[in-house]
Amino acid sequence: MAQRCALSIRIVEGKNLPAKDITGSSDPYCIVKVDDEAIIRTATVWKTLSPFWGEEYEVHLHPTFHSISIYVMDEDALSRDDVIGKVCITRDMLAEHPKGYSGWMSLSEVDPDEEVQGEIHLRVEVVGGPGRRLRCAVLEARDLARKDRNGASDPFVRLRYNGKTQESTVVKRSCYPRWNETFEFELAEPAGEKLCVEVWDWDLVGKNDFLGKVVFGVQGLAEAGQDEGWFRLRPDASKAREDGRRCSLGSLQLQLRLRDETVLPSHCYRPLVQLLCQEVQSGLQDGRVHLVTLLDEATTAECRQEVSISLVKLFLGQGLVKELLDLLFELELAKPCEPNTLFRSNSLASKSMESFLKVTGLPYLHTVLGPTINRVFEEKKHVELDPGKVETKDVGCSGLHRVQTEGEVIEQGRQHLQSYLQELLDAIVRSAPMCPPVIRAAFRLLFQRVGERFPQHQHIKFVAVTSFLCLRFFSPAIMTPKLFHLRDAHADARTGRTLLLLAKAIQMVGNMEPAAGRAKEQWLAPLLPTLQEGITRMKDFITRLVEMEEEEEEEGEGRPLPPPSAVLKEGLLFVHKTRGKGPLLSAASRKLHFCLTGESLSFSKSPGAEHCGAIALHDILAAEKVEEKSFGSSHVMQVVYMDAGGQQETAYLQCKCVNELNQWLSALRKVCGNNPRVLRAYHPGVFRGDKWSCCHQRDRMGPGCDRTRHGVTLQDWSDPMEPAVEAQRLFHHLQGLRDTLR
After folding, report:
1. Where are the alpha helices (DSSP H) in 151-287?
2. Could you give the angle at the alpha carbon of 312 between the alpha carbons of 300 and 598, nearest 5°?
3. What is the pLDDT of residues 295-309, one digit of tens each?
4. 588 pLDDT higher than 80
5. Is 192 helix (H, G, I), strand (E, B) or coil?
6. CA–CA distance, 508 with 510 (Å, rounded to integer)
7. What's the rounded Cα separation, in Å, for the pair 116 and 145?
8. Nearest-angstrom CA–CA distance, 533 and 424
9. Alpha-carbon distance 36 to 119, whole Å?
10. pLDDT tens digits for 234-270?
């Protein structure tokens, strides 16, 4: 039995944000922190106070996490980024919405006294006889907030009880201080006072910074005798808040859902999986009620996306996904439907096919769309066919300037758009052999089913395929390439308009009725000949796609686990040199190309070059972040491993941004999480001189001062299938439908 905690996050958009730039606008992006650890950074949306992000993430967390904070920042090229505001959601708040929270949340001001993090290790006890005393041993702390420019703090502890105050020594430049000091107070009678343990950052100039506090009820402590452990530091809630402070910072539209899942061993779900598989294999039978039929009829619109993803992943793992889709097609076609609106609603069949394409077809999508999307971003052409949105500009040589006419701008835009569309259509019609066999098989079944259902409308079977391939797969990816991992950043206004027109053109080709689109927007008429040609080519492509025979190995029947040699993650990383041995630490180059597979983490001087060396996965003990002060960067990770001689070594690798850092950590943790020698504690600093920079220990091989975070990973499309997890989610959903099913 395994305990899982999965957090789904969708950052939709913002509105009414304050202007931070002299232009009267802002360049907003979001940072998502879980318990004050940054795990996600959205792309920046330039020059707007109402940004749209639409970015989705699923994060696997340790079940004991406390809160999630989303900071809205304003990016500045020449100075430190400005903080606009934040939204903080506690674990308890998420637990109150088991089906998820969706709505607008007001941004609040970032108060330094609320920006606390970390834990402190204390032992508090009541000792003595008649003259009892309150004793508090302050042992150590970990992961304190960084308040100084050097990326650390100078923490000390202040204890308050019964009107008296005592303070510990100051530990310089550490967020992992060790005090090992004991303090005593005379116990008040009756013992109704509270013991307040505060942590502060000492500053030579200016006032000290508050780092958090823990409060103990001494009455309960006197009865229990002793309390020892790690205690989470809390903010100072005693300060009065100004009314209306939340109103002027704007708001965020968010969708959040927390799943606390208890996943049983796979054999516990075998009866449910076998029943579903038998139904899918036997197909639709008259007079028989299917579980899949009940799911189709009883699942509400807000749950349909989640159920479809679980069904698709479960049947991919069973090698029966095309049979599942065929049954869903049959169920959908058995309902009263019009040929022109077929599969246009968000039915279970439509959502399952859409999820199936995203899960199995992302590499194919990148191959087909990638070159054209990159060209649009690089060229930044002004493409416009709508006379109401045309931008005119001066043209001509010096002394002969003139303003382009509206007709010239539109004709120029038509030529650019036609060039992009032709390139894209060329890529699509050439892509039939590259299309994964399992996708071809699903489209073949759809093509046949629709042809049998509407024999008098043979063109509808082509429209059925393009309604998924073009309208639900290609067009959304063209319109928002960031959301399909085609680009790292959102498009600017000009590029976004070009992508929108290109996506609209592909939609019209997919609808296979360009005249209908022209009737709605007359200005699309100049593109009509190209669209008509594209429809003819698209029909030929679909014919080839559905007539191609499946490969003998049936390798596309499911998406199996990647073979050991498959590349899971690769890229250039900067290597920080530290004292130590091992193949990586002795490499001559400072920047190496790393490649993570199911066997090892290898590295070479450049992509495709011969490997300089490798670390076997079973030798990796931990993959964790490194304190910013260690190398002056917040994007450094450490890989702790055993070298060939059995000695523990650490490689420090710098990434270009927080997203790349967390993607590498996530990939490494997924493949190494079950290693028998995995570490439970680590040092977030470096061993420099004669001590660790984090906790100042002098033993290089001494125990770590912070706990490792093996359970924190990001879900990725290439993750291996987890049939037990999907079965548990379907079982949970069916339980929730019991009243409806009755």
Report:
1. 218-224, 270-282
2. 140
3. 888 888 778 888 999
4. no
5. coil
6. 5
7. 6
8. 13
9. 12
10. 988 765 454 444 457 899 999 999 988 888 888 899 9
Say what percent of the chain tops pLDDT 70: 90
- Tally of residues, the chain: 742
**Contact yes or no for 334/284 (Cβ under 8 A):** yes
| Rounded CA Rg of the chain | 30
Strand-pair partners of 595: 570, 602
Dihedral sign computed on CA atoms, order 230, 703, 654, 485: negative
* Cβ atoms of residues 12 and 257 within 8 Å: no
19-35: per-residue pLDDT in tens? 988 888 999 999 999 98
pLDDT score of 514 = 61
C-beta separation of 203 from 154 below 8 A: yes
For residue 287, give both structure tokens.
Answer: 């007079």
Cα separation, 489 vs 495, in Å, equals 12
Q: Return the pLDDT at 601.
A: 93
**Residue 423: is its pLDDT beyond 90?**
yes
Mean pLDDT over the full length of the chain: 86
pLDDT at 447 over 80: yes
For position 227, what pLDDT does the model report? Answer: 86
336 Cβ contact partners less than 8 Å away, ≥ 6 residues apart: none
Closest CA to 590 of 601, 582, 578, 581: 578
- Smallest CA-to-CA distance from 559 within 276, 273, 312 is with 312
- The DSSP 8-state label assigned to residue 422 in this structure reads H
Report DSSP letters for 532-590, one per residue.
Answer: HHHHHHHHHHHHHHHHSPPPTT-TTSS-PPPPTTSEEEEEEEEEEP-S--STTTT-S-S
| pLDDT computed for residue 28 by the predictor | 95
47 pLDDT higher than 80 = yes
- 24 burial type by CB count under 10 A (0-12 exposed, 13-18 middle, 19+ buried): exposed
CA–CA separation, 726 and 309 (whole Å): 9
What is the pLDDT, as a whole number, of residue 396?
A: 44
Residue type, 574: F
Q: What pTM did the predictor assign?
A: 0.84
CA dist., res. 296 & res. 307, Å (int): 10
Query: Who's near 251: CB < 8 A, 6+ residues apart?
Result: 14, 15, 16, 104, 105, 106, 107
- SS3 of residue 408 by DSSP: helix
The H-assigned helical ranges of 380-474 are 406-429, 437-453, 460-469
Q: Rounded to the nearest 10 degrees, how much is the dihedral formed by the CA atoms of 534, 537, 542, 545?
A: -130
Domains of the chain by range and CATH? 2-107+250-259 (2.60.40.150), 119-232 (2.60.40.150), 264-395+403-547 (1.10.506.10), 567-714 (2.30.29.30)
User: pLDDT confidence of 488, banded at 50, 70, 90?
Assistant: confident
pLDDT of residue 350: 92
Token readout for 640 is 């702790």
Nearest residue to 582 (alpha-carbon basis) of 556, 616, 633: 616
* Residue whose structure tokens are 């679909």: 542
Which residue did the predictor score with more confidence, 584 or 700?
A: 700
pLDDT digits (tens, 9 = 90+) for 452-461: 988 888 889 9
Residue 500 CB-density burial (10 A; 0-12 exposed, 13-18 middle, 19+ buried): middle
Quick one: which H or E segment has residue 630? Answer: helix 628-631
Query: Kindly report the CA angle at 268 between 267 and 269, in degrees rounded to 5?
Result: 90
Q: In whole angstroms, give the CA distance from residue 126 to residue 218.
A: 9
Three-class SS of 31-73: EEEECCEEEEECCCCCCCCCCEEEEEEEEEECCCCCEEEEEEE
